[in-house]
Every structure is written in structure tokens, then in C-alpha cells.
Specification:
- It contains 2 helices and 32 strands.
- By secondary structure, it is mostly beta strands.
- Among the domains are: about 100 residues, Sandwich (lipopolysaccharide transport protein A fold), CATH 2.60.450; about 140 residues, lipopolysaccharide transport protein A fold (Sandwich).
- It has a 6-stranded antiparallel beta barrel.
- The protein is rod-shaped and about 160 Å long.
């Protein structure tokens, strides 16, 4: 090649090199600084959560720190621009396991996972399940740091082996502890060691319920097994021992009697209830055996000495008929009887109905026309299978007293009477006192029956 051509091409090469250095290097640097996702970045100060990534059918994993804690399948996801929130669509096959190894499964129409705070939210057709429950609701929230499931809306499904309807559930996955708003629960509580047969119990807590292990506490609660109803400010059910303790304005409703007291304990296995600390009882009329909640009027104690023994002068024929109702034995179960006692222990299972009444009980029966009859004793025993009531005194003293609006006033050590309709039989110990006779009645009637006391009810 000729020398002058060499110089020409060398000049062109040098010019191109200078041009590349002058123009190319800055452009290369600018190119290398480009952010491929720059168009998706938020402007400074913007809080908009417009998604940066959308995907179709996928599996989403949830992490607790560096540990995989859960996952679910979804038909679609949206990832927020700050990568902290994932919106989930058509959630299925969801499962989450907490730090204690306790797991629950879930499905929902929609949801979201907030990575920064470890919170799962689901809504629409929510189904959540574990070993203790299988529930449906419209919303669900799981808070990772607390290990707590939260449902704020209506809830329905299986819970602790029974049927649940409630609102506002807080449930700790690790311990099984829970708090719930107004609740209605029905199920068989006893295990094979607590009772020989399964009995369906229904519980309600109008002000909610909570648990501590096997003990469930219902606020403003009620409980029934179909044979009795117990209502109280607080009802505590021990699922393991089969014992229910009701306290505060307790109301007991049975087929034979209704009662009120400050405290009652129900032993589900034995179908026995102990009412204590001052009991007011209404023994129903024989033809009233319906189990229903009715208002129980308080019974005020009647002091015997405050009742006038004077008989009204010159009674009319109508008054005589009303007075005869007082001494008519056939109407013992025709009218309700109000009873006051310190403690009543009652076995209500059919075939074994009986009661022990302690604490100086007194009973009063209101009859038509303002007539009445009342009795006081030290303790009483009732056998619902034989329809016998025995009123007794301690130490054999004449501590059993019977009075009536007619002016009758009798004392005895014990008195045993049939409560069965059509059975007029009765027995007693030696009787002292006054018995008012009608002019039409026989003079010097035979003395009331005496003899050996009947067997005690066990």
C-alpha cells in the first residue's frame, strides 16, 4: 500500500476512535445505569399500591423469617409495587403451620398476604379447618406473631365436637384457647370416662364465651340437656369432668319444678343438680310437666307467728267451700307449691328422681280465695318415683310445723305424705296443736295416723 493511503486510513481510524470515546463512552455509561423496572417505580412520596406483577395460576409460599410456614394454590396473584403485599384470587389447598407445629387449612374466594407484618387475610366463602373445628365465614385473619385466627363476622360449623353458631372468634392455634362473641353450641360433652351414655347439651353465651384448657366459660349463659334448663350470669362447663357450675342469678327449670338461687352445680354424669346459698323453688302442679322458661316470682319467707290463728267469724257457705279446699288431700298436686330452702340436691334422671332439701325449708301452697297452707321443718326428702314427701326434724323434736288459713296449727317430729293424685295417705309422728273443725264435721274425729316413720329416701 502506498504511504499516503496508509496515512489516510490511519487518520480515519484515529477520528473514529476519538468519536467513539467522545460520544460512545457517556452513552454506554448511561445505558449501564438504566433500571429495567424504572417505569414501574412509584414517584417519590406516592403510596399507591398499583400492582407491578400479575400472574395466573400459581403456588404462593408464606415465610416466617427464613422458615417456610405455609402455602396455597391460587388462580391469580398481584404483587404490589413495594413487593410487601400479595393479593390472592381463588385460594385453594391452603395450609399454614405455626411455630408449635399446629396447622390449619383454608380456602377462600380472595385474600392477601402482607409480608412485612406476617398477616393473612381472606374473604368470601372462607372455610378454615383443623383438629378442633371446621368453620365457615365471610372473613378470616391470621396474625403470624400471635399465632391467632380472627373472625369478626358470623361463624357456623363444627367446633370442639359440636355445632357452633357465633360471631367474633379469637382462636390461638398453638394452645386451642379461644374467645368468642355471642355463641350457641350443641354437642355431646362427655367422653366414655365421664358418662356411660352420650347426652346432647346445648349452650348459649349471649355475652360470649372463652376457654382455659377443658373449661369453657359462658357469659350470660344458658345450658340444657332437654330435661333441665339452667340460666345464669356465668356458666362454667368442665368438658373433662362433666360438671357445670352456674353462678349469679341462677334460674333452674325442670319438668317437675322451677328454682332460683345464687349458685347451682350440675353433675352431668349422674343427672344431679345441687342448688345452694338460698333456694326458692316452685313445685309445679301435677298436670304441668312442660320444660319451659317462665318468670319465677320470688317467695318471701312467712314467719309462723305473723300469721293470725284467729278464724274469721261466721263464714259463708262459699267461704266454707274454700276452707274445705285447705284440708282436702286430693288437691295436693292440683296447685303449685312454693318452697324456700338453703340447699336442694335433686336427681332428675327418669327412674331415679329424688331430692334432699336442707336448711330449714318451708313450703307454701296458695289456694283459691286467698286460702293457703304452709309447712316448716328442719329438712325434707322427696321421692319422685314413689311420689312421697317426708318432712323431718332433727333430734326427734316437734320441729315440723303445719299451719293454714283456717287457723290450723300442728306440730310433729316428722310427717310423710303422698304427692300422687288420688292418693290421700299420710303418716306422722305424734301430733300436737290445734285443728279447726267445721260445725258440719264429726265431733271428736279419730286422731291422725301415727306409727313408725317410713324409710328414708337415699
Amino acid at each position: 500500500m502506498k504511504p499516503w493511503r496508509t496515512w489516510i486510513w490511519s487518520g480515519i481510524g484515529l477520528s473514529a476512535g476519538f468519536a467513539m470515546v467522545y460520544y460512545g463512552i457517556p452513552r454506554l455509561k448511561a445505558f449501564l445505569k438504566l433500571d429495567t423496572l424504572a417505569s414501574f417505580k412509584l414517584n417519590s412520596g406516592s403510596l399507591t399500591m398499583v400492582p407491578v406483577i400479575t400472574m395466573g395460576d400459581s403456588r404462593v409460599d408464606f415465610y416466617d423469617g427464613a422458615k417456610l410456614a405455609g402455602f396455597c394454590q391460587v388462580s391469580g396473584i398481584e404483587v404490589s409495587r413495594d413487593r410487601l403485599q400479595i393479593k390472592l384470587k381463588d385460594i385453594r389447598e391452603g395450609k399454614y403451620t405455626d411455630k408449635n407445629g399446629k396447622a390449619f387449612t383454608f380456602t377462600a374466594l380472595n385474600g392477601s398476604w402482607q409480608k412485612a407484618i406476617g398477616q393473612l387475610d381472606c374473604e368470601g366463602g372462607v372455610k378454615v379447618q383443623n383438629a378442633n373445628f371446621n368453620l365457615g365465614s365471610d372473613t378470616l385473619r391470621y396474625i403470624q406473631k400471635d399465632g391467632e385466627l380472627r373472625i369478626d363476622g358470623a361463624i357456623k360449623g363444627k367446633f370442639l365436637g359440636g355445632d357452633l353458631e357465633a360471631t367474633k372468634l379469637r382462636y390461638r392455634i398453638g394452645t386451642g384457647a379461644f374467645e368468642v362473641g355471642p355463641i350457641s353450641w350443641a354437642g355431646t360433652l362427655q367422653d366414655k370416662d365421664a358418662a356411660p351414655t352420650k347426652t346432647l347439651w346445648r349452650f348459649k353465651g349471649d355475652s360470649g364465651a372463652s376457654t382455659d384448657g377443658d373449661v369453657v366459660t359462658y357469659k350470660m349463659g344458658s345450658a340444657t340437656d332437654g330435661e333441665i334448663i339452667v340460666k345464669a350470669d356465668t356458666i362454667v362447663s368442665n368438658r373433662k369432668t362433666g360438671v357445670i357450675v352456674a353462678t349469679g342469678h341462677v334460674k333452674y327449670f325442670g319438668k317437675d319444678a322451677n328454682m332460683t338461687c345464687p349458685k347451682a352445680t350440675v353433675y352431668r354424669k349422674e343427672k344431679r343438680v345441687v342448688l345452694q346459698d338460698g333456694v326458692s323453688m316452685l313445685v309445679k302442679a301435677q298436670d304441668d310437666t312442660t320444660l319451659q322458661e317462665v318468670e319465677i316470682e320470688p317467695l318471701r319467707p312467712v314467719v309462723p307467728e305473723s300469721i293470725s290463728a284467729a278464724r274469721p267469724p261466721a263464714p259463708t257457705d262459699e267461704e266454707k267451700k274454700l276452707d274445705n279446699q285447705v284440708i282436702e288431700p286430693g288437691n295436693r298436686r292440683k296447685y303449685p307449691v312454693k318452697v324456700l330452702a338453703q340447699t336442694i340436691e335433686y336427681w332428675y334422671q327418669k327412674g331415679n328422681r329424688h331430692a334432699r332439701i336442707n336448711g330449714s325449708p318451708q313450703a307454701r301452697q296458695e289456694l283459691p280465695g286467698g286460702r293457703w297452707r304452709q309447712i316448716w321443718c328442719d329438712f325434707a326428702l322427696y321421692n319422685g318415683e314413689t311420689d312421697r314427701l317426708r318432712m323431718d326434724s332433727t333430734g326427734g323434736k316437734l320441729g315440723t310445723r303445719m299451719r293454714s288459713s283456717r287457723g290450723d296449727d300442728l306440730r310433729t317430729a316428722w310427717f310423710d305424705v303422698s304427692t300422687k293424685e288420688g292418693d290421700d295417705s299420710w303418716k306422722s309422728g305424734t301430733i300436737q296443736g290445734e285443728f279447726i273443725e267445721d260445725d258440719s264435721e264429726i265431733e271428736n274425729p279419730p286422731p291422725p295416723g301415727t306409727g313408725s316413720p317410713p324409710p328414708m329416701v337415699k
